[in-house]
Write a structure and sequence with these properties.
By secondary structure, the chain is an alpha+beta fold. Helices cover 44% and strands 13% of the residues. Strands 3, 6, 7, 8, 9 and 12 form a six-stranded mixed beta sheet that branches. A two-stranded parallel sheet has the order 1-2. The chain has a two-stranded antiparallel ribbon with strand order 4-5.
Length: 449
Amino acid sequence: MVGKKCSKGLMGVLAGSVIMMGIVSGAFAVEVSVPKGFKFGTYTQQPWAGKTIHVAMVAEPRCDALKKLAPEFEKLTGIKIVFDILAYPTLQEKQMVALTQGTGVYDIVHVDCVWVGQYAGEGWTIPLEEFILRTDHNTLALDDFIPAVVSEQGMWEDRIFGFPFINAAFGLHYRTDIFDKYGIEVPQTWKELRETAEKLNLKEPGVSGITFMGRRGVQLQCSYDNMLWSFGGDWYDENYRPTINSPAAVDALEYFKSLIPFAPAGVLTYDWDETARSFAQGKAAMDLQWHNAAPTASDPSKSKIVGKFDFAVIPGKLQPDGSIKRTPTFGGWSLEIPKDSKNKEAAWEFMVWATSPEIQPRLAYGQPGDRFSSLADPKLQEKYVGYQTLLVSLPIAKGRPRIAAYSELADALEVGLSEGMTGAKSAKKALDDANNKFEFILKKWGYLK
């Protein structure tokens, strides 16, 4: 309930500022053309009937679920939707080409949270305040969005560029049957997590204490970020001076490496699929991973542990005052409208519908939603693992850097993490080298003088 109050406070201020800006300025940079008295999200008129909009989306279950519902929108509005649902790297490349060339190929693009700074900062996508002013507030329901999710996925420099569509947060998947059998409590701190992993390792035949994503790549980086931030470290400071080799950062990597003896033998070759599969097949008592691995463990065709696991808030670092600092890594996507779209109004009508409170529960079988109302729905909480945990995790989750240099920084960090985890270098040496690369990259991009 505290989170809901925070939501109303932040989003109420946001909505109020949008209204005041409209009153004071009379118009935003983006011109919106609608019939007199028209409100988006009411579906009482069809001013864009016969128009076709092209929507790019990442190939994930929630997007497929939305596509199945699209005929209902087409009937409401007369707007035809053409989906281009693509694997991550293909989507990234096709959107980049379309946006930089200004071809107007897409009317809606799907933006990973780490791309927001580039898409909005380069002016590839447009701010949405003028559209918000002309939208039915009950359909839009701004105060129902989780503020941290909107901020990370759709905002840049205090402007709204997109609305959330797909979110993810790290947490701890754990075997309830094994925990109950041995009378073990869910670990709350990183120290307790390691102790629990050691205690449960091979307690059951063929079942490791923990599994995680240890292969060099973005998933290793995202796993480490959970620890880095709660240990008190970060990628760089407020002046873009790299700090990835700070004592806290080194301690976090050394801690992460200390989990390897209690994980499956091949854990340093595991990415998302291998980790989710190992947990679902009963090969580990715990899985440090994104929430979106839960459907794999809940699917009888893929899992041996259906009904025998749950999803808990990520452990954290015990503080001197007795509190626990938890910083679950955040990930997610927003829907945004390209500057060169020729159908901006029709695109916005679709965005409002696709992200509305009414549609969210109908997409839940694909992936969880982005609103308090859907995550707090008792029926959905009973049906899907981890909804109550997401209500706690998403408001406190922390996102990765959203600056244009992110991809290069991430590559450098992923190399260092892999070197530290495999023992090719000490944690200190690996992160010292990564820090030097960070400095070069941040200077090259103009962030660091």
